Amino acid sequence: MAELEEQLKSQIIESLNLEDIEITDIETDSALFGGGLGLDSIDALELIVMLEKFHGIKIDDPSQGKDIFKSVQTIADFIRAQKA
Amino acid sequence: MSETLKIVSHSVIRNSSISVNGKMDFTSGEKDFKPFIKGAFRHYDLKYPKFFKMDNLCKLAMIGAEVVIKHSDLGNISKERIGIVLLNRASSLETDRAHQKTIDSRENYFPSPALFVYTLANIMAGEIAIKHKFQGENMSFVSSDFDAELTQNYVANLFATNKVEACLCGWVDFDEESYESVQYLVGVNKSKNTIFDNQTINEIYNAK
How far is CA B122 from CA A41, B66, B85, B138, in A? Predict the structure, then answer.
């Protein structure tokens, strides 16, 4: 069950070039934005691309991103819901 | 006014080495740019996570600027009165190519926003301005060769028209693992410092 979450953490680190961050540094339930990762609006766009590239899910309405990208958990829940 | 302009401090980055005011400040056994510049970032203990998101051109510009600024006394000059004037040959070509690869194929069409924002040469000056909160004139030229006269004329005019009180200037070029940064801070009436003229700029550039 947690495999997807771990995979997402790895993809986030790679996609956003979080050079100093390890998978273990990202809490599954912690806020991705406004927290210690220092993510910005460009990163939000990059997460949308990441979702499409690695998971084949296209977000047509970027305003959905606010809820989807709250945390690794919310991304994973969204992916599972889309693939159910 | 140009006779009172002085080069307060300068840095040169090439061949895996960084010199400041003519003295070696950092050198690395890494021949490749990425490990070299990462080593420099760690060496100067910059603590600026955004650095890792930058393209190679901006990383080069950022480190070159950092060491110049660190060795310059900006006194009470307002950040609004500090300009940045940079010059290079390859513009943002390396990142332009990388971006092109992400949109070449219809089947694998994933343009990266984080990459796309670096497909303009003037972002190197922008990144420095953001980090140091410099809000003065900000200009990037593209020129086939290092051009001391172009920079000298433009920057002298900025001072003459009272647009800036200090200006970070230089040549920052990156293309296919070939890289070079020669940056210097120009200020007024720093009597101990070197005069800001074409000869001095060329001497800094040509120093081994």
Answer: 20, 17, 9, 8
